[in-house]
């Protein structure tokens, strides 16, 4: 099942372990992805393509990730001055209109003992909780190239992406990533290691991308792909990639390859 949730191609912002704001952004103007150990407070922005405001690093709940997920050069901000706290996410209206148990309409209220508005059944009183979707995929490596699929379905029909999609009940993240690769590229892969986790809070999605390699050099388009192809890092069509999450993942991968230090990444993508 290929990823079907729409990702807005314009106006996204990304920064490891923090959130920042931009005034102008486009699909091809993603700021360079900094390793998690970088201490510069300003976002890195290609001139003439992207205007960014400085992004102070938060010492909030993400501090533990900075210690464990950035490679051997990463370290916590010891002795750093206090930074402004990250603003809470904007309120999102519950989308469940009818009860999943009895079919009656729901109402939007704050249940007793809770703080957020929930969809609550007007008949049986069942509280419906909405949780993020988990998306899993593979960054498939073969002879110094990566495998991309051109989408045959909307959203982003005709654009390139890593093979990825929603995790199914009953499978692990790695199993789901391998299954998606088989479905979209007819390729059997061996999972090597997790490469990145990317959270997109405003659309309720969390990505886990795994590094993988082909078990055999065979691949071809699955039913949801127009084409499949191996691209060298210099050939990756960044102006024709489907989703912000894929752009971010490939940018981080290229930086790791250039530095000779492949590591695990965590970041949040804020769409506007």
UniProtKB/TrEMBL annotation:
Q: Which residues form the Nudix hydrolase domain?
A: 131-254
Q: Which PROSITE patterns match?
A: NUDIX (PS51462)
Gene3D superfamilies registered for this protein in UniProt: 2.20.70.10, Nucleoside Triphosphate Pyrophosphohydrolase
Q: Which SUPFAM superfamilies match?
A: Nudix
User: Which InterPro entries does the record associate with it?
Assistant: NUDIX_hydrolase-like_dom_sf, NUDIX_hydrolase_dom, Nudix_N
Protein's name in the database? Nudix hydrolase domain-containing protein
């Amino acid at each position: 099942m290929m990823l079907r949730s729409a990702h807005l191609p314009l106006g996204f912002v990304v920064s490891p372990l923090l959130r920042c704001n931009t005034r102008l952004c486009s699909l091809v103007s993603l700021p360079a992805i900094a390793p998690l150990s970088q201490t510069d407070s300003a976002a890195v922005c290609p001139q003439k393509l992207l205007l960014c405001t400085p992004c102070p690093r938060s010492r909030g709940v993400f501090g533990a990730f900075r210690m464990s997920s950035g490679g051997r050069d990463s370290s916590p901000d010891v002795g750093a001055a206090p930074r402004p706290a990250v603003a809470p996410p904007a309120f999102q209206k519950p989308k469940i209109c009818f009860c999943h148990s009895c079919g009656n309409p729901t109402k939007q209220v704050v249940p007793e003992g809770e703080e957020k508005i929930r969809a609550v059944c007007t008949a049986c009183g069942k509280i419906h909780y909405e949780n993020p979707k988990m998306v899993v995929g593979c960054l498939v490596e073969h002879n110094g190239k990566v495998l991309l699929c051109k989408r045959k379905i909307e959203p982003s029909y005709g654009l390139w992406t890593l093979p990825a999609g929603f995790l199914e009940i009953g499978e692990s993240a790695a199993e789901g990533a391998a299954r998606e690769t088989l479905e979209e590229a007819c390729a059997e892969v061996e999972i090597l290691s997790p490469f990145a986790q990317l959270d997109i809070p405003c659309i309720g999605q969390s990505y886990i991308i795994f590094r993988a390699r082909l078990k055999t050099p065979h691949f071809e388009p699955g039913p949801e792909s127009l084409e499949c192809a191996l691209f060298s890092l210099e050939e990756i069509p960044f102006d024709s990639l489907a989703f912000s999450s894929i752009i971010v993942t490939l940018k981080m991968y290229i930086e790791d390859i250039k530095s000779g230090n492949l590591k695990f990444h965590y970041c949040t993508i804020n769409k506007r």
